[in-house]
Amino acid sequence: MNHHARFILGRIFFYAGACLFASFFVLPLLWLTVAPFNTLATLSLSLPEEFSLANFRRVFANTFAIRALVQNSVLQAGGAMVLVTITATLAAYALSRSSIKGTDVITYGLVLFSSVVTGTAAMVPIFLMIHGMGLIDTHVAVILVFTGGLLPAAIFIMRDFVDSIPRSYEESALVAGASPWRVFNDIALPIVRPGMMVIAVWAFVNVWGGFLIPFILLRSSGKMPAAVAIYSFYSEAGTPLVTLTAAYSLLYTLPVLLLYLFVNWKYGFRFFGGIKS
Amino acid sequence: MAGVAFRGVSKSFGAVTAVDDVSFDIHDGEIVCLLGPSGCGKTTTLRLIAGLEGPTAGSIHIGDRDVTMISPKGRDIGMVFQDYALYPHMTISDNISYPLKVRGVSKEERASRAAEVAASLQIGNLLERRPGQISGGQQQRTSVARAVVHKPQVFLFDEPLSNLDAKLRLEARGFIKHLQKRLGVTSIYVTHDQAEAMALADRIAVMDGGRIVQMAPPLEVYHRPANTFVANFLGSPPMNLLPVRLERRTGVTRFVADAFTITAEGWHERLQGRVDDGESVILGVRPEHLALGEADDPWSFPGELYATEPLGPETLITISVGDALTTLRIFGDDPPVVDGRVHARIQNTNLRLFREGGERIELG
Questions:
Q1: What CATH fold (topology level) applies to the domain A62-225+261-266?
Q2: Which residue ranges in chain B fall short of pLDDT 70?
Q3: Is A189 helix (H, G, I), strand (E, B) or coil?
Q4: ipTM score assigned to the predicted complex
C-alpha cells in the first residue's frame, strides 16, 4: 500500500470514529426537535408524516406538569441561581482579598466536599436535617440544598475571576477616595460580572435538571418541578408515552436555552481582562 | 498643599521588616524620590503614605494632620500606579473623573473637568475610548490625569515609567517634572532608576534594607555619597571603588594596593587625625574623574585594557586593575585610541575616601 492510500484510509477511519462519537450527542437532539411534532413518534428517529401540534395540546392539558414547569421549576432554579451567584461572588471576593492564611485550603476543601454533599450518599442526612428544620415540602428546602451543593464549585470558579483582577485597581479606587463597599460595587463587580453570568446560567441549569433532591424533599404534587413532573407522562405500567414526553421535554429545554441567549445578548460570556503591563 | 512627615515609622510583614524606624520631613511643594534596589522598602514607604498599609510603629503626618490611623479615603492624595490601574470597563473620561465621582461631583462637572485635565495632558482626543484601546504612554498620562483631577495635597508615584519603552520614558520623565513644578504639589516618587531620581528629584532619599541611608539634593548624593552603597548605586557606570591600604610616614601619604602605589601629594595634612597608618580604606572615584595618564604621574595607576565602549559624546574605557574592573569616562567626539597597558589618572580634587565598613570619611 502506498503512502497516499494509507493517508486516505486513515482519514476515513478518523472521520468514521468522529461521527460515531458525535452521534451520541447529535441523535438525541435531532430526536428532540422532530419527535414532539409527530403524533406517532417512537424512540427511533424518523420524520413525521404529518407535522402536528397535537402532542403539545395534550401536554398543556396536563395542568400538574405545566405548573411544575412554569412555576415550580422557575421558582426553584431561579431562587438557587440568585442565591448561588450572589453568595459565591461575595465569598470569592472575600477569599481572594482576605489576608487570612489558608483561604486556598478552604476553597479546595469546599470543592472536594461539595461532590459529596449533592451526591446520593448525603441524601439521608440532608433529609433528616431538612426534616429537623421543618422545611420538608417547601421550595426553600430545595433552594437551600441546591445552593449548598453548588456553592463550593461556584466559589472556586468565581475566585479565579476575582483573583485575575489586579489589586491595584481597588487600591487606586481606595486612594481616589472610595469606601471599600464602593470599590467592590464600582470596580470589582463590573469586572467579574461575566463570571457571575457563567455561574448564574450554570447554577440554573443544574437545578433545572435536578431530580433527586426535589423528589425526596417535596411531598405535594403542586410543588414538584418539571424534572419530577415529567413522570406524569408515563403510563400506569411505567412506560413513557413517547409522544407526550417528547413534547414536554422540548418545552422543558426552552427556558434554559432562552436564559443562555439572553445572558449572551445582554452581557456576553466574555471577560474584560486586565491591562497588559 | 502640605508636607509629609514620618516619625519613627516601622512596618513588618511577619518576620520581615520592610521599613525600619524611618523618619523624614518632605517639605510643601517638594518632589522627593525614594531610590533603592528591589526590596529596600521604598514601595512600602509609599504605600504607608497612601494608607494602603498601616505602620507597625511610629506616626505619619500630612500637613499638620496625624494620618497614621486614617484610611486612604481621608488622606487627600493622588497616586499613579506602576501598572496604571486603569479600570478596563470605564472610558478614559470616566477613569479620569472617578475621584470626582466618589466625591459626589455632578456628572456635567465631572465630564468638563476630565476634559480639561485630559486636554492639558494631550489626551483630550481619547476621552471616549477604553484603556485597552490606547497605547502605554497614553495609559500612563490617563493615570496621571486621574491622580491630579481632584487637586490632591500630595502626589504619589510608584515607578510610573517602568512599563514604558526607553524613548517614551525620557519624554514622560520631563513631562512629570514639568507638571509637578507647574502644580507645585508635594510629590513622592518611587524608582529604582538612579537617572530618573537624579533628573526629577529636589531631594533623593536612598533606601537600603528598610532604612534611609542618605537624603539630600541629587548632586550632593552624587558627589558626596554617604557610603559605598550610595556611591555604587548612583551613576551609570557607578563610582569606581578601589580598596587600598594607607601608608603615612614622614610627611607622605601613599595609597598602596597589590597592583599599584599612589603617592598622595598634598593629602597628608587633609587626612591628619582622620585615618591611621596601615588602615584599609576604599578610594572612590567617578569614571568622569579619571583620565588617561602617564606612567610617571604620581596620581596614576596602571591596568590592562578590558573594553572600549564609544557612546557618541563620550567613551567608556574599562581596565582591569588586579582582579577588579575600573571604568574611565572620556568626553569628546573621537574615541581615544588605547591598547594593552593603560594608565588612569585620578583628578584628586574629586577623590572620595571610605572606611572599610563603607562610611565616607570627611576630608579636611
A1: MetI-like fold (1.10.3720)
A2: 1
A3: helix
A4: 0.83
